[in-house]
Amino acid sequence: MNPQASIPPVLLRLHQGTVAWLHSWWRLLLFSVLMLSIALTPSGYRSERRQVLARHIVSDTAPNLAWYGVLSALVSLVLIRIVVVTSQSYGLSRFALEMVVRVLVLELIPLTAAAFVALRTTLPAGLEFSQSRSRDDVIDEEVLHREFFPRVAAGIFAVWMLAAVSCVLALILAYLSLYGFTPWALGGYTRVVGQVFNPAVTLILVMKIVFVSFAVGLIPMASSFYFGANYRDKVRHSLSDMVRLFAVILLIEVASLMGNYY
């Protein structure tokens, strides 16, 4: 007698789904450890491998930096104006700058930078790379160094660069929107910004950017690593990649909010 025959179908599907879910996260962990070992190996930075790595970093960062910089500036100006007008209407003008920094720089910019890189670079690149591989391709050490690791590192670096440039741009736009083109308010401005960016908040912001960048760089390529030759499996798992990626980003954001405000 088949032991599964006595198990209700709902419980059986739940068990199979749970096992598949845990298996997918375990494979992601193994792939992350593999990429980390390559990143810490000196042989991974030989001359020919450095050229491949540099080419991927430039191609994944430069186009995104231009587009995201423009979009980030426009959205930042709109949000800054909304916060300033709202604070003035409630007589809270002295808190306008702090609200702008906390809402825009600490929360929105890291999330939008990660989502922008994921949707424009890492998720499409993971799907395209998996489709270009044939069923007979063997993943050896050279393939890991020349194909997988440069794409993962480029996605991580792109998030870092976009977040850093956008944060600096948002701070400049906040100063110009509140005080105009005058240097006399710089002392009060830096004092308020410094009060917001205390050591704990700065550490949480850096850790959030680092962790979301790891998620953006690793999750799509991990799926390509395990489902590269099977196009049907890759298409089926591409949606789960997106869901898993944004679920991880959401969990990181919740953790950062708890660290900042609790």
From TrEMBL:
- From which domain of life does this come? Bacteria
* TM ranges: 25-45, 65-84, 104-127, 148-176, 196-221, 242-261
Q: Keywords, A to Z?
A: Membrane, Transmembrane, Transmembrane helix
- Record's signal peptide: none
The answer to whether the entry has keyword Transmembrane helix is yes
Give the protein's recorded name: ABC transporter permease
Organism equals: Duganella aceris
- State the organism's lineage: Bacteria, Pseudomonadati, Pseudomonadota, Betaproteobacteria, Burkholderiales
